[in-house]
Amino acid sequence: MNSEKVKKIALVAHDHKKEDLIDWSIENKGLLTEHKLFATGTTGRLLEKRLGLPVNKFLSGPLGGDQQIGASIATGEIDMLIFFWDPLEPQPHDPDVKALLRLAAVWNIPVACNEATADYIFTSPLLNKEYDRKVESYSSHTTRKIK
Hints:
The protein has 147 residues and is of the alpha/beta class. The chain is built from seven helices and five strands, in the order βααβαβαβαβαα. 41% of the residues lie in helices and 13% in strands. One of its GO terms (cellular component) is cytosol. Its EC number is 4.2.3.3.
């Protein structure tokens, strides 16, 4: 692995999308082996078992895993989010999911919410290249005076 090209990829899936993510991951195993993988608990255990690749596992999504991934995005420890979410099932931890997606947008990382978008990202020539993403300066937000 060339560490300059290695991306830190978070893989997340709602319950009804876990098999879709696993199938997609198996199809893309060759590319995934070149990167460092992270996942929420159950998804991570399933991916590790089915892919035979190491996966850094956070807590289960509803138990705080989504928030842990969000914090890792904010600290620059995650470069990309592949999140197969289920738009037709209500999720008890929906606020956590929205916060995770908001942080991915704030820190300008690529996000795939379905297989088609994940395919586009994984066929991009930028996947295995150094990429200098633009991140807005939030210094005015963090240094503002509170009355």
